Amino acid sequence: MSNNLLAGKRGIIFGALNRDSIAWKIAEKAHAQGAKFVLTNAPIAMRMGEIKDLAASTGSEIIPADATSMDDLDNLFTKSQEILGGKLDFVLHSIGMSVNVRKGKHYTDLNYDWLEKGWDVSAVSFHRVMQTAWKQEAMNDWGSILALTYIAAQRTFPDYNDMADNKAYLESIARSFGYHWGVRNKVRVNTISQSPTPTTAGSGVKGFDGFINYAHEISPLGNATADDCADYAISLFSDLTRKVTMQNLFHDGGFSSTGVSDSVVNKFGSEE
Ligand SMILES: NC(=O)c1ccc[n+]([C@@H]2O[C@H](COP(=O)([O-])OP(=O)(O)OC[C@H]3O[C@@H](n4cnc5c(N)ncnc54)[C@H](O)[C@@H]3O)[C@@H](O)[C@H]2O)c1
């Protein structure tokens, strides 16, 4: 299905690692809706090579950039505008990583060097990306900047560990920078708070199987898939959402508003 919702729009998509990645699905749908974009990921992720298939199928170029390196980001935004032939209309930040999660460090025993690394990659990088675009005046008026987040920023999910704190910081950056972008360029900045999704980053969280199934049973509409998330992202890049900004937008099948569902009650209740 294509309605050319993004015809004539140019963007940068961060975070497509493999076919499971949420950013991968967003890139495919953005292409189907007529967008042109540059794909980027950390140099280390490039070595896995899968991103080349996505570049081929979407007619995109790849520019490696570590989202914590200002030099890499400066180069990325400069070259992207050259390649795409003008300023940008959308940017997707789909990046997350916690060293403490990866190494199985418990929240009550965090390694602070690892915490700082994960915070920089997962949260501050969003500021770095926007500050680079800001200084280069790289965004067209009425553009859209989007990052992905998780409800652990508001509610406790014990095994989400320090990523919960990183997501709270990320969502705050969206509001804080969103103000300045709105005033100067009518650019909107939002975060999508997505259901648990089976990807490389998602599956790295301890107990992921348990909480993806639990979320599915609680949510009246069931979990939102990566494909569903891509549809939502396209709407936020399109001109149909121009006055939505500085919002954390739950895309979770109703999970965030539901206390309990009949199916979960039935699992725990005693039979009459
Ligand atoms: N999977 C879930 O359950 C879920 C739920 C809600 C939100 N999210 C968020 O969605 C986003 C995308 O994650 P995903 O689930 O598609 O997993 P993913 O593993 O496919 O994507 C994470 C990406 O971050 C990139 N990355 C890591 N360090 C980087 C760096 N220094 N510079 C540039 N890129 C770097 C990785 O290479 C990878 O492409 C993340 O922000 C994640 O927290 C995921």
Summarize the structure.
The chain has 272 residues and is of the alpha/beta class.
Helix-strand pattern: EHEHHEHEHHEHEHHHEH
Shape: globular
Largest sheet: 7 strands, parallel
Largest sheet strand order: 3-2-1-4-5-6-7
Strand proportion: 15-25%
Percent range of helical residues:
40-55%
Please, how many domains? 1
How many strands appear in the DSSP assignment? 7
Radius of gyration: 18 Å
CATH architecture annotation name: 3-Layer(aba) Sandwich
What does this structure look like?
Helix 7 links the parallel strand 5 and strand 6. Helices cover 45% and strands 15% of the residues. The chain has one domain: 3-Layer(aba) Sandwich (Rossmann fold). The protein has 11 helices and 7 strands. The chain has a 7-stranded parallel sheet with strand order 3-2-1-4-5-6-7, sandwiched between helices. The chain is globular. The longest helix has 24 residues. With 272 residues, it is of the alpha/beta class.
